Amino acid sequence: MVKIVFNICQQLLQPRRAHAAVVLAASVAFASLGCSKADNHVPVYPVTGKIQYQGKPINGAFVTLEPKAAVEGVPGPRATVQPDGTFAVSTFNGGDGAPEGEYTLTVQWYKPVVRDHELVGGPNALPAKYASPKTSGLLVSVAAGENQLKPIVLR
């Protein structure tokens, strides 16, 4: 890769193209930094589940897994509930799962409402206790391998 960039830069290093060569070299250097694997990219394992409130799916609700022992630099696992009530947890990429560990599941559901002729997020339609890891009472354990959570029924 460095040799290719060097050859391109040599071709561009004519008096009128020197600026383009510097810009190209800097661009390639910054792009290659973005391609490196992050040190905090810990292993994740698939986590799927199904959730209902008062016996019905909560389409569009936002589920988070709050770790009992957070790892610095690792994003919090989260998911959006589908129309049938299912969800697949993501940490780094869509549906990749969560790191192994113990979690408290929180969920919030901001059903859209019309306000001033616009569709906006309304108040949380679920009891407030489910929005906080201190009060949700929903414990989840993620282990190496596939993790299918027991159905979650909120009241």
Topology:
Elements: H1 2-12, H2 18-35, E1 47-53, E2 56-57, E3 62-67, E4 78-80, E5 86-88, E6 101-108, E7 110-115, E8 118-124, E9 139-142, E10 147-148, E11 152-154
Parallel strand pairs: 1-10, 1-11
Antiparallel strand pairs: 1-2, 1-5, 3-4, 3-6, 6-9, 7-8
State the main characteristics.
globular, alpha+beta, four-stranded antiparallel sheet, 33% strand, disordered N terminus, five-stranded mixed sheet, Immunoglobulin-like, 2 domains, 2 helices, 155 residues
Strand content: 25-35%
Taking Cα atoms only, what radius of gyration do you get, to the nearest Å?
Answer: 23 Å
Please give the domain count. 2
Overall geometric form:
globular
Biggest sheet overview: 5 strands, mixed
**How is the CATH topology of the largest domain named?**
Immunoglobulin-like
Question: Please, what is the CATH homologous superfamily of the largest domain?
Answer: Immunoglobulins
Poorly predicted spans: 1-9, 11-38
SSE order in H/E notation? HHEEEEEEEEEEE
Which percent bin holds the helix content? 10-25%
Q: According to CATH, what is the class of the largest domain?
A: Mainly Beta
Distance between the termini: 58 Å
- Overall SS class: alpha+beta
Mean pLDDT reading: 82
> Which architecture of the largest domain would the CATH scheme give at its second level?
Sandwich
How many extended strands?
Answer: 11
* Number of continuous helical runs: 2
